[in-house]
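To fix ideas, we now present one chain and its tokenised fold:
***
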Amino acid sequence: MTTKPAVLALVFAAAFTCFGDGRMAMSRPPPGWVRTASVHDPSIFRDRDGRYYVFGTHLWGATSKNLISWQSSDFLRNAISQDTARKIRSWNADETAGNWFDYLWAPDIVYNPAMRKYCVYLSANGDDWKSNIVLLTADKVTGPYSYVGSVVYGGFTEETWRETDLAKVLGAPTLPERYVKWGVQNKKWGLMFPNCIDPCVVTDETGGMWMSYGSWSGGIFMLKLDAKTGLRDTTAHYATDAHSDAYFGKKIAGGAYVSGEGSYIRKIGDWYWLFISYGKLDAKGGYNVRVYRSRKVGGPYLDRLGNTPFYDTYAMNFNDSRGVRLFGAYKWKDADEGMVAQGHNSAFVDKDGRAYIIYHTRTTAGHEGHYIRVHQLFLNKKGWLVAAPYRMRGEKIDPKGTRLAKSIPGEWDIIVHALDVDYAHLGVARPKRATLNANGTVSGDFTGRWEVERGTPYFSISITGPGGFADTYHGVALTQAIDGTNTKTLVFTALGDTSQLTIWGSKAP
């Protein structure tokens, strides 16, 4: 999160229904169109009854039975008593907050079987990094939620550090000198230490619980949690070096004031995937989702080309080539508006094995209205995530790719998600037209060859085209409904071998 709560409060006040092509209305959408909701920084959770819940900034949320039709809700806001709100605010110091919930950002929701509780990890964002992440618990997903305690504190000084748990965690009788030298009062906190917001809690294959957190500033850090309490595991110890701190834990990404926030970690397939949003969240801010993967929950995380997510010196990374960008700003030919500033996502694998990403997006309409979108995720043949070109409408991939090779020949619109997006002027990637010929060749704006691996949905395309995007892209092909319509068509999504650029294709219906 990089926008003041008071600004976002005005945005949230205008909740709307958004149709599949980005248009907004308060009326009932026609058949085949999607009802969405305006939730910032969505964290998704599937309860035991099969209903999906989204928890978001300012304690706003939404519910759905199918991931397609969403109903906005203030269930979380109503599930917190005045006493709990007072306890949350006991450390926070945000002078810009108006309503009591305006400084509460980006909650993450999990069910803790050891506690038999629903656990909400909530950002209490303050000025000068004086932020903390608190734990709330309930017996039902809708609450009521009670205050348990703070997991980690930030922005402490020589005058305030004893109000935190630092002395207990470190066994330190005095404030370690590094928190003074690189501290708030010396205006250097963000060079070394995290802003304690944007939590994500993940359980590893052994049942261990971990929390990643942080936004810009000193980077994204990770702490081990105690499953019995939901709070930090005080028996876990961390080194103090360039990528670790005895109190804040292990750094896994970012640093040096470089953009990167809203970390989210989930295991999909054989890998743990680290999602991070680069850029600023406003419509002209260049927000975009990057992914890295690791065999272990604590890293090291690498992208397709072997780059790490660390930044030890400042860099303007909004359009950086580091990190696989699942998608950038784009606009299909028949869409009224383009999608821009997509980010701060969550992700999950449903009971049927299908994986999804859910995020908030803005549009090229020229305002800061935003809404949530859900796209299905797939693993390509080389084990890398790719996102479906259109929002989820219940589609399923055919694992055998039945008749796929015979169905692909025809006219296609192809979007290459190039990195050099002119986000400051609402720039978007637009489709080019190409023909995928029955003999496996590609002609038109792109030239090259395409192929479907027999008996699978795996699709590959080697092309050269406008902008010099010469690469071989590996992905999958499937049938989807075009956003805003009931028209179904073949699509593909793929990732470049050497460019690690994402490419989307949609067959002209």
Notes: The chain has seven helices and 31 strands. Confidence is low (pLDDT under 50) at residues 1-31.
